[in-house]
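Retro notes (design track)

What went well: tokenization of the new backbones is finally stable.
What didn't: we kept losing track of which sequence belonged to which structure.
Fix going forward: every design gets posted as structure first, then sequence, in one message. First example under the new rule, 262 residues:
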């Protein structure tokens, strides 16, 4: 029986992915700060990914229980919105601590095991906001762009150990991520950047009308089981077109078009 470890598995894409893998007969360990919904075949372990020691303890527990880990999905993350000028540096650092350094912590915890196995897959939840940086969500885009670059380097470092690396870049998905976003509601910021509020509202409307998380779960399952794993997988047909245009058109033009959208 194959074993999946997934961070941020208590809701949204993570929860849908944990349920799907369990239904497919996998042993699933869901790592998050709070257990929410008990699902048959899914074992919850308390773990704050920003705490390196907790990540090590969680992986040790799975190893003790199962003796192997076949797939790690680093999914924990959240967003902040608002103009760059008025975003507190501490808020940006806190988000990077989860979105980027949290991924680093869990990857470092699982790598010794996968090296010993000479096998394993490490998958990340990124976003199309990484290649297509979104105004007023600049720090979220930056954290996911950093994750993409990290994954590319990681693949080259661990290939010789039989470990594969993949990144899922979803477009708009209908989850609790939207309501959990940390917003900069500073009155001065709104007075200076008068477009910011409406831009964020438009983005959130798109998210609430977006794809179901189960669609991303199916993509993760495909990434975990297919023989050939591309480094990047885009979630959603329309977003594949956007990412293709980003590669084909001058970046200055793409960025200008995106700016006009918001």
């Amino acid at each position: 029986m194959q074993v999946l470890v997934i961070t941020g598995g208590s809701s949204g894409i993570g929860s849908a992915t944990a349920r799907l893998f369990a239904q497919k007969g996998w042993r699933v360990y869901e790592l998050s700060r709070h257990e929410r919904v008990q699902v048959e075949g899914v074992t919850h372990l308390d773990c704050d990914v920003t705490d390196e020691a907790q990540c090590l303890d969680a992986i040790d527990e799975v190893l003790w229980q199962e003796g192997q880990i076949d797939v790690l999905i680093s999914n924990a993350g959240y967003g902040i919105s608002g103009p760059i000028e008025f975003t507190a540096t501490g808020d940006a650092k806190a988000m990077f601590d989860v979105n980027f350094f949290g991924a680093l912590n869990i990857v470092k915890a699982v790598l010794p095991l996968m090296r010993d196995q000479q096998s394993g897959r490490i998958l990340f939840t990124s976003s199309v906001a990484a290649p297509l940086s979104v105004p007023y969500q600049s720090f979220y885009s930056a954290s996911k762009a950093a994750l993409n670059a990290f994954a590319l380097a990681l693949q080259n470092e661990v290939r010789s150990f039989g470990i594969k690396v993949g990144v899922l870049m979803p477009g708009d998905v209908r989850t609790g991520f939207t309501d959990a976003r940390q917003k900069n509601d500073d009155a001065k910021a709104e007075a200076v950047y008068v477009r910011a509020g409406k831009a964020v509202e438009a983005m959130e409307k798109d998210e609430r009308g977006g794809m179901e998380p189960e669609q991303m779960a199916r993509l993760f399952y495909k990434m975990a089981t297919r023989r050939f794993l591309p480094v990047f997988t885009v979630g959603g047909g329309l977003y594949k077109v956007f990412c293709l245009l980003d590669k084909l058109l001058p970046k200055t033009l793409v960025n200008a078009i995106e700016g006009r959208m918001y």
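Added context from the reviewer: The longest strand covers residues 163-170.
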